[in-house]
Known about the structure:
By secondary structure, the protein is of the alpha/beta class.
Amino acid sequence: MNAKYFFTIFIPTYNRGYCLKDVVLSCENSTFKDFEVVLVDDGSSDNTAQVVKELLESISFPLRYIYQKNQGKHVAFNLAVEQAQSTLFVTLDSDDSLMPLGLEKIHSLWCSMSEDEQQAFVSIEFRCLENGIASSAYPEPYLDSTYVGRRRVCSSKGEKRSAYRVDVLKEYPYPVVSSERYCRPGLIDIRMSNHYKTRFSNIIAIDAGHFPDGIGANRRKVIVSAPHAYRQYFLEEITEHEAFSSKKDLRSFYLRYCRSSLNAGVGLKQLFSEVPKKLLLLLVLPEAFVTSIADRRLKRKLIRARS
């Protein structure tokens, strides 16, 4: 791949005109300048387009603004990957800030690998600040493992992000369900981990924001509105990565798989045919039924609020 830039910074946004300027200008402060920004507007109805127009007159780096009808962040991600002209790909949410030294440190760590070594890796994972507090650290100087294999070595708390190889991302797009606007981000990570390793670093590259109108602050609403995507994620964890999961995690995966499957209208016969541990599924089924009833009530409430 002949990359035009070293990094593509992907900024997804939806009705975030009020804070978009800050995240874009944080890229201006980066000490590493070999990057492009691809900003995908997921169907905003506010002043986002005007804010971008004004920013284009003041910034010193290349920024491409792409508008799509509202389909969700994962669809915007796929589009940005298609458009990327770089080696590595980093997501910067519209309520985040890029740390000035972040890209420079990631670049240095990536370039410390030989070209043959780079071919074995899909990404460098890095840490984030949340409310001024850094997410948990990895063993120094870094940890090389697969995305799922890392669970056997150490736990991970707090928000992490990754700088991914663009050429690999193009082979692993997020699946798209036409009726849903979300896909669990880890789905492509667990799929890529079947073939590639990740370097888990202690670099802190992003100050992660969590505004009240964001996905993180509305997690349950997102879950109930995207049952097929959640179901697929936990099904793959159960059927392909059981060996890397603790008993506690595996029970949680079965519960959330069952819950999201019920929310998606999948029958019990299919559930029992898909999973290897029938008894564990049977044990979590009562709790899954109770939570799915509450989920469906919330979903009806959300539908009424939109109508």
